[in-house]
Design brief:
146 residues; mainly alpha; 2 domains; two-stranded antiparallel ribbon; 7 helices; 2 strands
Length: 146
């Protein structure tokens, strides 16, 4: 099974033409903006969501299953899936990335910034990632002056 970036928008999931727009609209109205937000919802929580049928929930579970994800995942499970490992000393996050290319280093910075904004600034996961992306984009355009 392939993995995906759970900080991506739920719009990156393909629910097909028949359900896609409706399901995305339901997610937006219920504050589900990222794949992480969706996975943290339990099946029971989604079952109480207006206009979301059992058939739609089954379809969501099937799509998440393609990426080794499921509904009702804990924050710890989601962090492990994303490669965020909290070290015992000081609870500092450590990102597990196999390669050390320049792009990987920027991605690691992006995750650290988003995590900091999410945990300490209490931004939603979607807003934290959006802010982190904006900051990284700005930082990458600044020439090295040292």
């Amino acid at each position: 099974m392939k993995k995906m970036d759970i900080s991506k928008s739920v719009k990156s999931l393909d629910f097909g033409k028949q359900y896609g727009v409706r399901v995305q609209r339901i997610f937006q109205k219920n504050g589900i903006f990222t794949v992480r937000d969706l996975c943290s919802q339990s099946k029971q929580e989604l079952a109480h969501t207006r206009y979301l049928s059992e058939r739609s929930i089954s379809m969501i579970e099937k799509i998440l299953g393609k990426y080794a994800l499921q509904l009702g995942m804990t924050n710890k499970e989601l962090d492990e899936y994303a490669g965020i490992d909290f070290q015992e000393s000081g609870n500092q996050p450590s990102i597990s990335i196999g390669k050390n290319t320049e792009a990987d280093k920027w991605e690691e910075r992006r995750y650290k910034i988003a995590l900091e904004l999410f945990v300490h600034q209490h931004l939603s996961a979607y807003n934290a990632v959006t802010e982190a992306d904006s900051l990284i984009k700005h930082l990458r355009n600044i020439p090295n002056s040292y």
